[in-house]
Amino acid sequence: MVFGTAFVVKNNADEWVPLFDGKTLSNWKVGDNAATFTVENGMIVVNGETAHLFYNGDVHQHDFKNFEFKAEIMTLPGSNSGIYFHTAYQQGGWPEKGYEVQVNNSHTDWRRTGSLYGIQDVKEVFVKDNEWYTEYIKVQGKRIQIKLNDKTVVDYTEPENVQRSADNSLRKISDGTFALQGHDPKSKVYFKNLMVKILPD
Asked: Which residues pair with 84 in a beta bridge?
């Protein structure tokens, strides 16, 4: 399913630009299980079967390489979600391309919020369920920084000519769009104020 494209934003360097208009899923695209994503009171509500919502709008032609990204997030107990970057639209399944930044404070998966999933994982819980927090991602060249409420929890530099396992072969710095993850029907996560700042190559 492709949502409308009525919300158009011109992006300028060194400015934070919204990716979500607070009212609709214009400029976002989802394949299987589209009902997992709804909009309520200025928030993207994620609750339902496994699904991924990809940014498909006009900001930087939804193709980001070096950037800063931030979003305000609230999880309910036992919930799991994630933010993908340098990814590409898929109709279903788990996105193969790009990196996932974890959103999970109390799910059974031990990789906690802020993890660069499966690459540099965070075991400590830095933010709480039922409370809004800010998750920040910066990519500049091969360096990835992740912050939770301004606290750095991951600072990772991808090695030159990095080799991944066959099932993670596309978990590499490249370019692409962002995606939000709907993990399972027992997970409920809220996102708002999704913003990006384009950095020079």
From this structure: 100, 179
pTM exceeds cut of 0.85: yes
**Distances, alpha carbon 193 to alpha carbons 22, 94, 98, 172, in Å:** 8, 24, 22, 26
Measured CA to CA, the distance from residue 11 to residue 9 in angstroms comes to 6
Structure tokens at 124: 């400590």
Domains of the chain and any CATH numbers: 17-198 (2.60.120.560)
Lookup: tokens for 149: 């409420």
Q: Is residue 10 scored above 70 in pLDDT?
A: no
Burial 5-14 (b: 16+ CB within 10 A, else e): eebeeebeee
User: Beta partners for 71?
Assistant: 135
| Pairwise CA distance, residues 128 & 116, whole Å | 18
Rounded CA separation 194/70 (Å)? 6
Q: What is the pLDDT confidence band of residue 13, given thresholds at 50, 70 and 90?
A: low
